[in-house]
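TASK: fixed-backbone design
INPUT:
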């Protein structure tokens, strides 16, 4: 899989891909992530990529021309399955969307800034608009990192058995059950006995019941 991220702030997006699981996935060649600085595609003077909005009002809008130049260059190089715009008025990201996107080959993510992008960019190029939640970030970069992380960890070979995505919260629309590690007793707080029993059918039953209980208590909307 290849992910191209178009941004005015590439600095904000370097470290997420230089650590831990995402770095390992890139090093193993399971995913390629390329950052594109929108300013490299500016046309006017001063590397301008944004301008005042027509009709007046506070806030700058990312211009269509640099975005068109960048996306068109990428599209001439390969086919893209999705061109995603990160925006608070998009569809809220969930596990199902992450699962779907993890099956794609090439994806572009466009990060908004200021008041967002010229609507004509959205009309002409964007195939999917994603929000990571009902709050406003100062730009789409952190949202792009979140979406990329949620996708990349699902790619075959990225996670090992230990970190398997199969038992994640949300993978079966249930929250994950509680987990414990050593010591089995700490300052009078004991690990549930069943987990120490070695009886795996019983352990599995306990986990399922706990997952259901947790979901009923915290996220009844998922049931
Ligand atoms: N850009 C600004 N806020 C955002 C959000 N909540 N999700 C995605 N992109 C955004």
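OUTPUT:
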């Amino acid at each position: 899989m290849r992910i191209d991220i178009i941004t005015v702030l590439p600095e904000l997006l370097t470290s997420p891909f230089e650590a831990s699981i995402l770095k390992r996935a890139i090093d193993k060649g399971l995913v390629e992530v390329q950052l594109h600085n929108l300013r490299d595609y500016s046309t006017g003077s001063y590397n301008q990529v944004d301008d005042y909005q027509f009709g007046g009002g506070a806030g700058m809008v990312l211009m269509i021309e640099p975005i068109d130049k960048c996306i068109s260059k990428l599209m001439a190089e390969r086919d893209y399955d999705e061109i995603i715009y990160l925006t608070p008025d998009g569809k809220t990201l969930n596990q199902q969307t992450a699962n779907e996107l993890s099956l794609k080959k090439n994806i572009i993510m466009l990060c908004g800034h200021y008041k967002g992008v010229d609507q004509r960019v959205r009309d002409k190029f964007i195939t999917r608009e994603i929000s990571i939640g009902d709050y406003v970030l100062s730009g789409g970069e952190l949202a792009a990192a979140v979406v990329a992380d949620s996708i990349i960890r699902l790619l075959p070979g990225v996670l090992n058995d230990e970190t398997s995505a199969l038992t994640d919260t949300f993978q079966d629309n249930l929250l994950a059950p509680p987990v414990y590690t050593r010591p089995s007793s700490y300052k009078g707080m004991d690990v549930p006995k069943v987990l120490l029993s070695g009886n795996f059918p019983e352990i599995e039953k306990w986990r399922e019941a706990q997952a259901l209980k947790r979901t009923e208590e915290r996220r009844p909307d998922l049931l």
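COMMENT: The chain has two domains: 2-152, 172-222.
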